[in-house]
Automatic annotation (TrEMBL):
Domain of life the protein comes from: Bacteria
Subcellular location as annotated: Cell membrane; Membrane
Residue span relative to the full protein: 529 to 814 of 883
Family per record: Belongs to the cation transport ATPase (P-type) (TC 3.A.3) family. Type IB subfamily.
Protein name, entry field: Cd(2+)-exporting ATPase
């Protein structure tokens, strides 16, 4: 191929905030059959906002929120940030945990003065044999369940917004004859709500970070080359394992390093644009 054409592709990308890491990236993109995406921070803004603190029994809502915030204060996950921000906004004093154990893509275990606190998803609390019969899932958002000394004490409802251009971008990708799949660690109901609003072809939910890679391998076996788009939070392995790894927006530094393509903006339209540029560039280079 003619390197000059790749320079023009790289130039066309940079005008749109798309950073191709060399001609090899442009060449690899032209062959992809599937775009697999992370949900949080890729299809959604990743701006989690606490909507409600829902205690069980006679526990106070603010106490539930304060315990969760103390537990989450050392985590850098966007869910954790939203809980800490909500507690601070209410003027609640946050305790500093004496021991913390974060389980990637699941939740956090911390020791506070009132005892052991667990904050995470349903499966995370279930793995600690917590009795969750008092938990009622009423909402299609992300919910963080909280246990104190191995007793379920309530949940916190957190919302995230779908990016404005998500549906248009998914439709543009599909228009390029490419299958769209979402790989997420979030629950099925929250994943289905996002799929319904964006028109994404397929969803795989409740995946742990290493399971995202297993799922990617299955997709590669069934359909061919896959571009994975993620922000690097809990998806670095799958980003590195994809035929084309794309890091989105204000992604983690490690993700930007491991990626073949970096989208400097968080707009989803960069995904179909990158594919179109790669296809045109390769036609010229032939
Ligand atoms: P996604 O695949 O949507 O980017 P992640 O893999 O980052 O999601 O997280 C998957 C799920 O794990 C979250 O939806 C949440 O239920 C749970 N989780 C991860 N980190 C935390 C945390 N710090 N506190 C509470 N729950 C968490
Ligand atoms: Mg993520």
């Amino acid at each position: 191929s003619v390197p000059l054409a790749f320079f023009s592709g790289i130039g066309a990308g940079s005008k749109r905030g798309i950073l191709f890491k060399g001609g090899a990236a442009l060449e690899a993109i032209k062959d992809i059959k599937v775009v697999a995406m992370d949900k949080t921070g890729t299809i959604t803004e990743g701006n989690f906002v606490v909507q409600n603190s829902v205690p069980t029994g006679n526990i106070e809502a603010d106490y539930l929120l304060a315990l969760a915030a103390g537990c989450e204060r050392t985590s850098t996950h966007p869910i954790a940030n939203s809980i800490v921000n909500a507690a601070c906004a209410k003027g609640l004093s946050l305790e500093r945990p004496t021991a913390v154990n974060e389980f990637s893509g699941r939740g956090v275990q911390a020791t506070l003065s009132d005892g052991e606190v667990l904050c995470g998803n349903f499966d995370f609390l279930e793995s600690f044999q917590i009795d969750l019969s008092d938990y009622k899932n009423e909402q299609y958002g992300t919910e963080v369940l909280v246990a104190l000394n191995r007793r379920f004490i309530g949940h916190i409802i957190i919302s995230d917004t779908i990016k404005e251009d998500a549906a248009a971008a998914i439709s543009a990708i599909k228009g390029l004859d490419i299958l769209t799949v979402m790989l997420t660690g979030d629950g099925k109901s929250s994943a289905e709500a996002v799929a319904a609003q964006t028109g994404i072809d397929d969803i795989r939910a409740k995946l742990l970070p290493h399971e995202k890679l297993t799922e990617l391998r299955k997709i590669q076996d069934s359909y061919g080359q896959v571009m994975f788009v993620g922000d690097g939070i809990n998806d670095a392995p799958v980003l590195a394992g994809a035929d084309v790894g794309a890091a989105m927006g204000s992604g983690a530094d490690a993700a930007i390093e491991a990626a073949d393509v970096v989208f400097m903006t968080s707009a989803m339209e960069a995904i179909p644009q990158s594919i179109s540029i790669a296809r045109i560039t390769n036609k010229i280079a032939v």
